[in-house]
């Protein structure tokens, strides 16, 4: 389901003001997105959250409410109604674009009733360390969804379906409370000793009722919405074997590929490798280490560009790597803020869009801008996406031989008319690099598709050209 030279696009940012109309907007834009090379959309969480019409989607309340029931102060979600969501997915299909649903199973928020139960506190810095004797706490763990009236599912959640929570309503205290007779899930990230607990009422993925309900819900969701795959949120906080078994079973029962990418937020590539191994290669991952390399490179003009792909997933395991420049968590004012600086954005996107490794994901906030933060759209990002669709084919030759100026060429293929290109990036001064692009281009003239350089490059009889780049920029050379 990842087409050759496919492009995923994350079609939201944190502060998106879509007036509960995003699903309709996407449907209207589907044809244009297809034309510029988008082959899949990562759609935001579609179910009702604690924030109702203002919920971005990660404070999950009711997974069965896709904008259909009057819950949390609204019928529609932030992005629209259930019918609009289903129509949006169908319209994307007509334009040849896959839909990936954002799946948030780690926690629940906004319970309908409180429960009084025994629990012990654990240390914020090490969740394995108990810091109190057992005490009685009043916690938000009873989910009955009264306004849905058991439509689609009569499953109700109670405290036994969770491991812990971070708030005691009786005392108004914020602390991590682990429930009586509960253990944190194993095979999760080791940060904070054990990083099972993240937020809200933390779901217990060893509970058989929970596992069964998560399967039932996913089957319902697939049948109801017809999505093509998943983006899994916060996988490092969930028992690795749960998602491995979950996606395997869904693929077997639906007979569909169900392309799946997980968000394992770590700059340590060895942790990503371990996750892929533990899940038997069932799940691809976002290349967080590459994002950090791009972010650091944008903040340090002495960064050694020859090392930009060092210790990244796309270098070690390109078939499992979804590459990205930024997302809703890394944008300004967000918890993982590490936004790539504007001067380097074009170069960063060239590095993920115009090479033959990895599955690139374009961020809505880079494509359209982020008005909340006064951020303009990345210049000529649409051109770079079209270049991937039309030109970035054939054998790739790398010239990562200068700390401040790197490049590569793609020789093109007969299947794609006038395909082939040469990319050169500088993080310091104007520069140039002699690169081989193929003898079939001998005598051909090349221009910079981004218009950062005005010169014309002529390919010599050996199939080489002297390709130029201006200071702190990127040039993409294509046949005239």
Short summary:
By secondary structure, this protein is α/β, with parallel strands linked by helices.
Report on this structure.
This protein has 10 helices and 24 strands. Helix 1 runs parallel beside helix 2 and helix 8 runs parallel beside helix 10 (381-390). The longest helix has 18 residues, at 208-225. The chain starts with 7 loop residues before the first strand and ends with a strand. The mean pLDDT is 97. It has an 8-stranded parallel barrel. A 6-stranded antiparallel β-sheet has the order 6-11-9-10-7-8, with no helix packed on it. It has a 6-stranded antiparallel β-sheet with strand order 17-18-19-24-21-22. The protein folds into 3 domains: 8-105 and 208-390, Glycosidases (TIM Barrel); 108-203, Elongation Factor Tu (Ef-tu), domain 3; 396-479, Golgi alpha-mannosidase II (Immunoglobulin-like, Sandwich), CATH 2.60.40. The chain is elongated. Strand 15 (321-324), helix 8 and strand 16 (359-363) form a beta-alpha-beta unit. The chain is an alpha/beta fold and 480 residues long.
Largest sheet: 8 strands, parallel, barrel
Principal-axes geometry comes out as: elongated
User: Which topology of the largest domain does CATH recognise?
Assistant: TIM Barrel
Percentage beta strand: 15-25%
CATH superfamily of the largest domain: Glycosidases
Helical fraction equals: 10-25%
Mean pLDDT: 97
């Amino acid at each position: 389901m990842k087409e050759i030279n496919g492009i995923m696009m994350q079609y939201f940012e944190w502060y998106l003001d879509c007036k509960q109309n995003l699903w309709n907007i996407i449907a209207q834009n589907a044809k244009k997105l297809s034309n510029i090379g988008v082959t899949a959309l990562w759609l935001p969480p579609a179910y009702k959250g604690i924030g109702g019409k203002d919920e971005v989607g990660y404070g999950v309340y009711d997974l069965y409410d896709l904008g259909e029931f009057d819950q949390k102060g609204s019928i529609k979600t932030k992005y629209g109604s259930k019918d609009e969501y289903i129509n949006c997915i169908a319209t994307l299909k007509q334009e040849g674009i896959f839909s990936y649903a954002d799946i948030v199973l780690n926690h629940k928020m906004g319970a309908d009733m409180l429960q009084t139960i025994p629990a012990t506190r654990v240390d914020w810095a090490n969740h394995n360390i108990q810091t109190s004797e057992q005490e009685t706490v009043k916690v938000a763990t009873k989910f009955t969804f009264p306004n849905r009236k058991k439509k689609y599912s009569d499953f109700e959640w109670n405290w036994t379906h969770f491991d812990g929570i971070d708030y005691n309503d009786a005392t108004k205290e914020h602390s991590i409370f682990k429930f009586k007779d509960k253990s944190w899930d194993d095979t999760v990230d080791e940060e904070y000793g054990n990083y099972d607990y993240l937020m809200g009422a933390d779901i217990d993925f060893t509970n058989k009722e929970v596992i069964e309900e998560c399967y039932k819900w996913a089957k319902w969701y697939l049948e109801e919405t017809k999505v093509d795959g998943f983006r899994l949120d916060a996988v490092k906080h969930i028992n690795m074997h749960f998602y491995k078994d979950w996606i395997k079973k869904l693929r077997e029962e639906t007979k569909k590929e169900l392309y799946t990418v997980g968000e394992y937020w770590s700059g340590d590539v060895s942790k990503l490798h371990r996750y892929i191994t533990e899940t038997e290669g069932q799940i691809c991952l976002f290349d967080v280490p590459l994002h950090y390399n791009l972010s650091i490179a944008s903040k340090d003009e002495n960064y050694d560009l020859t090392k930009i792909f060092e210790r990244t997933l796309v270098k070690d395991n390109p078939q499992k790597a979804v590459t990205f420049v930024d997302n809703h968590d890394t944008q300004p004012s967000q918890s993982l803020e590490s936004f790539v600086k504007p001067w380097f954005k074009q170069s960063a996107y060239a590095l993920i869009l115009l090479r033959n490794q990895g599955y690139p994901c374009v961020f809505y906030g880079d494509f359209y801008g982020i008005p909340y933060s006064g951020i303009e759209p990345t210049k000529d990002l649409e051109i770079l996406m079209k270049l991937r669709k039309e030109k970035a084919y054939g054998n790739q030759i790398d010239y990562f031989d200068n700390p401040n100026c790197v490049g590569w060429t793609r020789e093109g293929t007969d299947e794609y008319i006038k395909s082939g290109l040469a990319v050169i990036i500088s993080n310091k001064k104007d520069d140039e690099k002699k690169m081989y692009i193929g003898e079939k281009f001998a005598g051909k003239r090349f221009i910079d598709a981004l218009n950062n350089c005005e010169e014309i490059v002529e390919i010599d009889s050996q199939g080489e050209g002297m390709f130029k780049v201006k200071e702190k920029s990127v040039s993409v050379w294509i046949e005239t």
